[in-house]
Amino acid sequence: MKTPRRRARELAVQALYQSNINNTAAPEVAKNIQDLPDFEKADQELFTKLFFGTKTNAAEYMERIRPLLDRDEKDLSPIERAVLLMACHELSAMPETPYPVIINEAIEVTKTFGGTDGHKFVNGILDRLAVQLRPDDPKRG
Q1: At 131, is the secondary structure helix, strand, or coil?
Q2: What is residue 66's three-state secondary structure?
Q3: Do 102 and 87 contact (CB within 8 A), yes or no?
Q4: 129, 102, 80: which is closest to 9 by C-alpha?
Q5: Residue 63: pLDDT over 80
Q6: For residues 41 and 45, what is the distance between their CA atoms, to the nearest angstrom?
Q7: Other CB atoms closer than 10 Å to residue 72's CB: what's the count?
Q8: Is-contact 139 99, C-beta < 8 A?
Q9: What is d(CA 85, CA 55) in angstroms, rounded to the nearest whole number?
Q10: Nearest-CA neighbor of 101 among 65, 137, 57, 55?
Q11: pTM of the predicted protein model
């Protein structure tokens, strides 16, 4: 059973994907997602923070992600891109969420929507990104 937070992350990735593919304004995409029947089962506050925070800071986040990529940015699948950007936002702006949770959730969302081995790629990038964004995290052990 999916938690409300997992649903929020999945919906945020769907919204980021939709916004990117259709070049649609964030408020319109958010309304489309909020009109879905399952939206009421999601953590709506988390969805809003993730989607709008990621959209607002996407260029900055991509600057952080780009050096970690083993391929050209244009070769990222739209799902991998959306998940990486969203996880970068969570790592950067939501210190209350432990980084292992963020990475695990990103992997699970990628397994749901991404290609066969996309989750492995996302995991590798986020492991390195977490070291940069949370170098003093006590959970790093």
Answers
A1: helix
A2: helix
A3: yes
A4: 102
A5: yes
A6: 12
A7: 8
A8: yes
A9: 9
A10: 137
A11: 0.95
